[in-house]
Amino acid sequence: MTVNPKQLAGERAAEYVEKGMVVGLGTGSTAFFAIQKLGQRVLEGIDICGVPTSELSRRQAELENIPLIGFDQITRIDLTIDGADELDPHFNLIKGGGGALLREKIAASLSDREIIIADESKVVAHLGAFPLPVEVIPFGWKAIQRRLAELGCHPALRRSRDHAPYLTDNGNYILDCDFGRIDDPPALEAKINAICGVVECGLFIGLTDRIIIGKTDGTIEERTR
């Protein structure tokens, strides 16, 4: 039988959700399985509210009949379950491949706990093989691109299938920045976010409490910080 590591991790994370929780619903191919499992748990009678981090996760949650609440209606989240594009041994992450990094970081910052779910391919010794997404305002984006390049990367404007600039759910652009190996993620995050016109970058530092890794052999590894 074929094992889906992402499904293993997503469904395991959903088991941490308890009655009465406000749950942050992440975005991406692994978070999909967590939302799917939460839909099953709602059908079985668990009483929760979901906070979607993207229009994509909102639509899926609605199909799963998960009750939803908006960011404007909360001041805290009990638990957020989300994926990552890369994660290192120090619980530093790169996120934003799906374009939802700003809302994902807001959810993480409001969360009492954050569980990151992934398969083994996302586990790295050092961040940087995956280009770092940086969300920027459309106005003056080329100037912002030049400022990012001065930090030692090759920033490329993300484009949609029709070759127009990719727009986030917030109406912003994303510059995918190839830094190579990132030796000091906190310092780099601070430098990027200090650039005027940058909305947020995809470095997630100190926000993760538990990592659940699904493996192709059918086992699950859990790490806690």
Identify the strand order in the major beta sheet.
Answer: 2-1-3-6-12-13
Q: What is the percent of helical residues?
A: 25-40%
Rg, Å, rounded: 17 Å
Overall pLDDT level: 97
Spatial gap, N to C terminus: 33 Å
Helix and strand element order: HEHEHEEEHEEHEEHEEEE
How would you describe the shape?
A: globular
Task: List low-confidence stretches.
Answer: none
How many strand segments? 13
Strand content: 25-35%
Major sheet characteristics: 6 strands, mixed
Assembly level: single chain
Number of helices: 6
User: Structural class, from helix and strand content?
Assistant: alpha/beta
What is the topological layout?
Elements: H1 5-14, E1 22-25, H2 31-43, E2 49-52, H3 55-63, E3 77-83, E4 86-87, E5 93-94, H4 101-110, E6 111-119, E7 132-136, H5 141-149, E8 154-157, E9 173-178, H6 185-193, E10 198-201, E11 203-204, E12 210-214, E13 220-224
Parallel strand pairs: 1-2, 1-3, 3-6, 6-12
Antiparallel strand pairs: 4-5, 5-11, 7-9, 7-10, 8-9, 12-13
